[in-house]
Amino acid sequence: MESFSSLSELTAVKSRLHVPGKTLGLLPTGGALHAGHRHIIQAARTEVDTLIVCIFVNPKEFSLHEKYERYPRHKQADLETCEELGVDWVFCPLSRELFPDDCSTYLNEQQVTFDLCGQSRAHYFPGALTLVAKYLNLLKPDVIFFGQKDAQKIAGVRRMIRDLHFETEILVYPTVREESGLAVDTRNELFSPHQVVEAAGIYEALKAGKGMVEKGILNPDRITAEVIHMLSRRRRIRIIYVAVVDRETMAQVREVVPGETIIATAVWVDEVRMIDSVIL
């Protein structure tokens, strides 16, 4: 395994990243690699010949009142994890190169990322999609990998790839969960034991919504009401949104189409913001 950070280093190794007849896969991460990342890396190894993992906490995904400095960082442990799992390359870009102080060009997708997290974190998607676009431009992977938990980001990247004619395929893997059902997330390490118990209620509520669909209830209002009711019973949880939407367009639906519709939520667990979603 080899790692690099600067754009000049990338230029020097680019010919080794792209080997004729070999496929290149990319897993973008914010570092602090967890079981969800490990699962994707292991699955990705069977899909592509060469795998590169990007480790970068994107400052443009944080607003002024969000704690960018508090976000967990474990670079050495991440590098050891990547080597253990057979990653070929690790790219740890420099913030001053990707987003210099006078950077003034950002992607503004205006449909699938407009609502939901696009309303409660208006700054997030321009920063997130711009970073992915930079990766696709700089690295030119054949495949990019994501976990299902980031459902709206995936929809935004998919639309960006279509609209900007990037020649990259997206592969999405199911959300990895703790035994309690809590989606594995880097921010989970910020929780106290009591908060972990409360946060597990997010999946419990979403699973109840899925259970309604399995019983033949396809009315989004009834499903949303039940999920909101269950989340509201948790003392530490404050709901930002709950929505039943099309998994491709993120538009709200009049009736659930099993397999094509998701229920998505964002909540605060005390001071930690969490998202999750389930395919209905």
Can you walk me through this structure?
This protein is α/β, with parallel strands linked by helices. It has 2 domains: 2-173, HUPs (Rossmann fold); 186-279, Pantoate--beta-alanine Ligase, Chain: A,domain 2. Helices cover 38% and strands 20% of the residues. It is built from 9 helices and 9 strands. It has helices at residues 7-17, 35-45, 75-84, 95-98, 117-120, 124-139, 151-164, 193-214, 220-232, and strands spanning 2-4, 24-29, 50-55, 89-91, 143-147, 169-173, 237-246, 261-269, 272-279. The strands form 2 sheets. Strands 1-4-3-2-5-6 form a 6-stranded parallel beta sheet, with helices on both faces. Helix 2 (35-45) links the parallel strand 2 (24-29) and strand 3. Helix 6 packs across helix 7 (151-164) and helix 8 packs antiparallel against helix 9. The protein is globular and about 55 Å long. The N and C termini lie far apart (39 Å). The model has no long low-confidence stretch (mean pLDDT 96).
What does the secondary structure layout of this molecule look like, with pairings?
Elements: E1 2-4, H1 7-17, E2 24-29, H2 35-45, E3 50-55, H3 75-84, E4 89-91, H4 95-98, H5 117-120, H6 124-139, E5 143-147, H7 151-164, E6 169-173, H8 193-214, H9 220-232, E7 237-246, E8 261-269, E9 272-279
Parallel strand pairs: 1-4, 2-3, 2-5, 3-4, 5-6
Antiparallel strand pairs: 7-8, 8-9
Helix pairs in contact: 6-7, 8-9
The structural domain count equals 2
CATH architecture label of the largest domain: 3-Layer(aba) Sandwich
Q: What is the CATH C-level name of the largest domain?
A: Alpha Beta
Strand order within the widest beta sheet:
1-4-3-2-5-6
- At the fold tier of CATH, the topology name of the largest domain is Rossmann fold
Low-confidence stretches are: none
Number of DSSP E strands:
9
Biggest β-sheet description: 6 strands, parallel
